[in-house]
Amino acid sequence: MTAEELQTLITQGLACQHIELQGDGRHWFATIVSSEFEGLRPIQRHQKVYATLGSRMHTDEVHALSMKTLTPAEWQAR
């Protein structure tokens, strides 16, 4: 999977104000900024992202995804 494909999958299921992806096609690190993360704990934010990938996480199409998930306010404050 390419970074563009992964970004498309995430942004189709989650309104992102910003997304950065780094990886080698199977192992990824993502910084994702979304207002949909407001009021959610980190695990709930990650679950929202995993939900956008569906079975791709289970079929090993995306072997590993580490994330930094932020609200727009958290992104601005960093």
Automatic annotation (TrEMBL):
Against SUPFAM superfamilies, the record matches this protein to:
BolA-like (SSF82657)
Cited Pfam families: BolA
What is the protein's given name? BolA family transcriptional regulator
Entry similarity comment: Belongs to the BolA/IbaG family.
